[in-house]
Design brief:
Number of strands of chain A: 9
Number of domains of chain A: 1
Low-confidence stretches of chain A: 251-256
Largest sheet of chain B: none
Helix content of chain B: over 70%
Distance between the termini of chain B: 25 Å
Strand order of the largest sheet of chain A: 5-6-7-3-8-9
Largest sheet of chain A: 6 strands, mixed
Low-confidence stretches of chain B: none
Shape of chain B: globular
Number of helices of chain B: 10
Oligomer: heterodimer
CATH superfamily of chain A: P-loop containing nucleotide triphosphate hydrolases
Mean pLDDT of chain B: 93
Mean pLDDT of chain A: 89
């Protein structure tokens, strides 16, 4: 159904090398306008690094990218206005209220006061936090914080919403609620969603297309149905395991994280 | 402009909401004023120095500004660890504005803290000798606040977590305070201490503050103002540079 639509994210031969290790290795993919695109892969596969490059936080070693037609490296301003993001780790100010967190974001993104207030009200009502708008965020549960972050990410009406493991550590009810919200936003606001998750059944339900990344390379892609067909498996989880293997990656990720830390400490840049 | 304002406002809100932090940070200056002020007072008077509280209070005001300011700067590490920094760094605003807003906010908080300690000192017996010089005193308080917030920001941009914080407190902030002339006059000191004290940025802040409040001075207003303005400018420049290189 998205066949004829333009690509809002274009990535060609994107590479990120650290001293001894290649986090993202020559990947290329496109995301179509209005679709929900899931970027899956084991821990340390390069998902977050890719998101950081797409969202101007990290300079790629090689390759080209276009976000909403702009180059994240050369045209940071326009790229930053084009997307909203929910990071893997919470990024709210706990000492401020829900409303103040929204307000802060709105001012940073240059929204006019009237506009800002209307939109904050609309979004906080949408994620069912309007009643709690005056409460300090530190009193919120994990699920409420996530919902607030999603509302905040949408405040400046971005074209693309990046969600890096938005349901990590949440109970099934909250996860379900969050995905319902995301799907609804995708339909109603026509926002393109780029997400990562470890919950395969969620990706199966929500994603129009999927790319699987491992060891920095994209090793498979297609619709959830295509991936299941390709591997001859019943569920996306099984398909995913047969594509990426069953080895546990956490130790691997640990040493990669170590390297990242060392790099940050000794080679700042 | 609005970016700088909202970042400034955030610092002020965070500060005014943390009552425990405000009250907690008044304990130390009060203890110093009472214990040192009254403890050394008689000896100081006998040695011909006059009223020690008059001498000490500007030093303690400078101290509380120093601690609050460095701490405000260092708070960036918290933002880094708790993720909030990312939210500001992906926003379509220049990093220099983020840095300016934060620094002004931190400096304002430190200045407010200094004013509270000034009031506290008055309760313990400190007298401002000449109220016409009060604006000059406030200028010096703000310069001290600005310089040390900038220093804290610069250091925080280089650190990954709070582990280095103790190190900085013990090997940088404490020596800056103790060797600044906040507690003792800089006249007739051993040569080594004298040299260190004249290299200590806080010495000029304390001197200016003391001059404005009580008329006692070592370096003189113009030198104090010149040194403080130049180093504040330099540290803000350095801090902005280091802040612009932060990766999250």
């Amino acid at each position: 159904m998205y066949m004829n639509q333009e690509n809002i994210i274009k990535v060609n031969n994107l590479t990120k090398k650290y001293k001894k290790f290649i986090a993202v290795d020559d990947i290329s993919f496109n995301v179509k306008k209005g679709e929900v695109f899931a970027f899956l892969g084991p821990n340390g596969a390069g998902k977050t690094t890719t998101i950081k490059m797409l969202t101007t936080l990290l300079k790629p070693t090689a390759g080209s990218m276009r976000i909403n037609g702009y180059n994240p490296h050369k045209d940071q301003y326009n790229v930053r206005c084009s997307f909203g993001i929910v990071f893997q780790d919470p990024s709210l100010d706990d000492e401020l209220t829900a409303f103040e967190n929204m307000e802060f974001h709105g001012v940073l993104y240059g929204l006019k006061k009237k506009d800002r207030r209307q939109r904050i009200e609309k979004l906080l009502k949408f994620v069912e936090l309007w009643e709690r708008k005056g409460d300090l965020v530190k009193k919120f549960s994990g699920g409420m914080k996530r919902r607030l972050e999603i509302a905040r990410g949408l405040l400046h009406t971005p074209k693309i919403l990046f969600l890096d493991e938005p349901t990590l550590g949440l109970d099934p009810q909250t996860r379900n609620l969050i995905w319902t919200h995301i799907k609804e936003l995708n339909n109603r606001e026509k926002v393109t969603v780029f997400l990562t998750t470890h919950y395969m059944e969620e990706a199966d339900k929500i994603a129009d297309r999927i790319a699987i990344i491992d060891h920095g390379k994209i090793i498979s892609r297609g619709t959830p149905e295509e991936l299941k067909e390709k591997t001859g498996k019943e569920s996306l989880e099984e398909a995913y395991l047969s594509i990426t293997g069953k080895t546990i990656r956490s130790e691997n990720a640990g040493s990669i994280d170590q390297m990242r830390m060392n790099r940050r400490m000794w080679h700042r840049k | 402009m609005s970016t700088i304002y909202i970042l400034w406002l955030r610092q002020i809100k965070r500060y005014s909401r943390s009552r425990a932090r405000i009250i907690g940070s008044l304990g130390q200056p009060l203890l110093f004023l009472v214990a040192l002020g009254f403890g050394f007072g008689p000896i100081y008077a006998k040695a011909g120095g006059g009223d020690y509280i008059q001498f000490l209070a500007p030093g303690i005001i400078a101290m509380s500004i120093l601690f609050t300011a460095v701490f405000s700067g260092i708070e960036i590490i918290w933002d880094k660890q708790f993720g909030f920094l990312k939210e500001t760094l992906v926003a379509p605003v220049k990093r220099i504005k983020i840095m300016i807003g934060r620094t002004l906010g931190g400096a304002t908080v430190a200045l407010m803290q200094g004013v509270v300690v000034l009031i506290l000192a008055s309760l313990v017996g400190f007298r401002i000798e000449n109220y016409y010089y009060l604006p000059i005193a406030l200028v010096f308080m703000f310069l001290i606040a600005l310089f040390f917030t900038g220093l804290g920001t610069a250091i925080a941009s280089l650190l990954e977590d709070m582990q280095g914080f103790q190190l900085i407190m013990n090997f940088l902030v404490m020596p800056i305070f103790f060797l600044s002339g906040a507690l003792f006059p800089l006249e007739n000191l051993p040569r080594a201490i004298n040299i260190v004290a004249s290299l200590d940025p806080l010495s000029y802040g304390v001197d200016g503050l003391r001059g404005a409040f009580t008329g006692q001075m070592h370096f003189g207003f113009s030198l104090d103002l010149l040194v403080l303005s130049v180093i504040t400018f330099l540290i803000l420049f350095l801090g902005s540079y280091l802040f612009s290189r932060i990766e999250v």
